[in-house]
Design brief:
alpha/beta; seven-stranded mixed β-sheet; two-stranded antiparallel sheet; about 25% helix
Length: about 200
């Protein structure tokens, strides 16, 4: 692994409680015989992120017990019910702390988007240049996940990440700085939010 390759960590937000799914934590939804959290970790690693930080929230202890999180930095977000913003802040705090030594960017992915795999993640990760990098997957020109946040942006993102908005407000303010990476040909950006969405799982 080159030094450059070790500068971008995967940041997986996997804290959601699946309120519209009967309270089943999204991290543990089964897809192709494995929990979604394992699929997402594998995709980030295949995309070139040797270091992966995983933010857990809903039934975190159960997720730790049932899912293979070996080699990941696991971050507990006690405030997960406040929305994705709190998980993003917890994850970025972890990356900026001792466990994130040497990191200069984060590739942020969501656990409930199994249609976005390693190929799309690798494309966005390839947009990394330095700690000022800012890039996002695009689907027919519409911004989506994953998102690459250079370390120079972490504090700004954390300051504006509230409720379920995540990095949206910060990205809107820095629209002209974002490198859009088209991924519609290799990924489908659906979310697993409702019972009807479970049809996407295999």
């Amino acid at each position: 692994m080159t030094e450059n390759e070790d500068q971008v960590a995967g940041l997986l937000l996997a804290a959601g409680g699946g309120r519209r799914l009967g309270g089943r934590p999204k991290a543990l939804l089964e897809h192709r015989g494995h929990p979604l959290v394992e699929h997402a970790i594998a995709a980030l690693r295949a995309a070139g992120c040797a270091r992966v930080h995983v933010v857990l929230g809903a039934r975190a202890e159960t997720v730790r017990a049932r899912a293979a999180l070996d080699g990941c930095v696991v971050v507990d977000n006690p405030d997960w019910e406040q929305g994705m913003g709190s998980s993003l802040r917890a994850g970025l705090d972890s990356l900026a702390g001792p466990a994130g030594a040497g990191l200069r960017a984060a590739l942020v992915s969501l656990v409930d988007q199994p249609g976005i795999g390693a190929e799309a993640m690798a494309r966005v990760r390839a947009a990394y240049r330095d700690e000022t990098s800012l890039a996002s997957a695009a689907y027919a020109g519409e911004r989506g996940h994953p998102v690459l946040l250079g370390a120079a942006h972490w504090a700004g993102v954390s300051a504006t990440a509230t409720e379920d908005r995540g990095a949206r407000a910060y990205l809107r303010e820095h629209e002209t700085d974002i490198t859009l990476v088209e991924c519609a040909d290799v990924a489908r950006p659906y979310d697993i939010d409702t019972e009807a969405d479970l049809r996407h799982l295999e």
